[in-house]
Design a protein that fits this description.
Elements lengths: L9 E5 L3 H12 L3 E5 L3 H20 L5 H10 E3 L3 H4 L5 E4 L5 H14 L5 E4 L6 H8 L5 E5 L9 E6 L5 H13 L3 E6 L6 H17 L5 H11 L6 H8 L1 H14 L8 H8 L12 E4 L2 E4 L7
Length: 301
């Protein structure tokens, strides 16, 4: 498959959650025409407004030039009509819920509309890129582009190579990563890749420690932040990612890798209670406008 670095001009981001918003902001800042799509127009409009507010705060803090923000806003296009924009794009990045069937369903619609040269990127944190490409009938141009939360801040981009991913597509993904200002690592397709497998293992053990009463959530997090120089503790990070997302990843790894990834009981209980982390207002912490505060955790029997 022949792909040139200059061929990527227009990007379609699917999904307007935290990751979709952040990815769209990053690609627009990098100078790509960025179409942002979701199934509901209201969510698209809300996401664009959120990006405008976030970049306005950066300008106010002196972390972004007003001219750069204006250019970025000009590159960002709300795209509720998928059929109107998909035929123009060179790169698709999906950031929709972590369900293989849903990803296949949405990306199949996009594949039917997009040019044959368009690269299909997935922000999945654990699902098989090889399976996704096979089910789409586009294994050679399917690649994992796993961003980290929040995408405008986090430097790492995990580029996941499926069994059928073309060499040129991998090189293109690396070129895009560098244009986005990211430092890429290349990981062969395997359950949980590198980062999710390591990250959820630490997070799950932190939950088991909390469950066993070893220490409070705040002190467990502080141990990793100060003792191991982690920028954020594993429980606070779980709140940011979403407890439901972490549960889905652990369940997948438990099936694919082994018993060490069995989800802790406390995680299942909190998800059942609707305590999903920052997005619901409470998880291992209570999330207010002032920031995270310690939350009471009641352990079941």
């Amino acid at each position: 498959m022949e792909v040139q670095a200059s061929a990527i001009r227009k990007v379609l981001v699917l999904g307007t959650g935290t990751m979709g918003q952040g990815i769209a902001q990053v690609t627009a800042v990098a100078g790509y025409v960025t179409y942002l799509h979701d199934a509901e127009m209201a969510r698209v409009s809300a996401a664009v407004d959120a990006i405008k507010r976030a970049t306005d705060r950066l300008v106010q803090k002196g972390k972004m030039l007003n001219e750069a923000r204006s250019e970025m806003i000009g590159m960002l296009v709300a795209a509720p009509d998928l059929a109107r924009v998909a035929g123009e794009v060179d790169l698709v990045i999906e950031a929709i819920p972590e369900q293989m069937d849903l990803k296949v369903e949405v990306l199949s619609r996009v594949k039917a509309l997009a040019p044959e040269h368009a690269i299909i990127g997935s922000n999945t944190s654990s699902l098989s890129i090889t399976e996704l490409g096979r089910r789409l009938g586009a294994g050679s141009r399917t690649v994992g582009l796993h961003f980290f939360n929040p995408p405008p801040v986090m430097e790492l981009l995990e580029v996941v190579r499926g069994l059928e991913t073309d060499d040129a597509v991998l090189e293109m993904a690396l070129a895009v990563a560098k244009r986005l200002g990211k430092t890429p690592i290349v990981v062969n397709d395997s359950p949980g890749f590198a980062t999710s497998r390591l990250g959820v293992a630490i997070g799950a053990e932190a939950m088991r420690m909390l469950e066993a009463g070893v220490a409070s959530a705040v002190d467990i997090d502080r141990a990793m932040e100060l003792g191991y120089r982690h920028p954020m503790g594993p429980l606070k990070l779980t709140d940011l990612v979403g407890l439901d997302v972490r549960l889905a990843i652990l369940e997948h790894l438990h099936r694919e890798v082994g018993e060490q990834f069995r989800p802790p009981s406390i995680l299942r209980q909190m998800v059942r209670a609707g305590r999903l982390g920052k997005k619901s207002g409470e998880g291992f912490y209570r999330w207010t406008e002032a920031g995270p505060e310690p939350s009471e955790i009641r352990r079941g029997r």
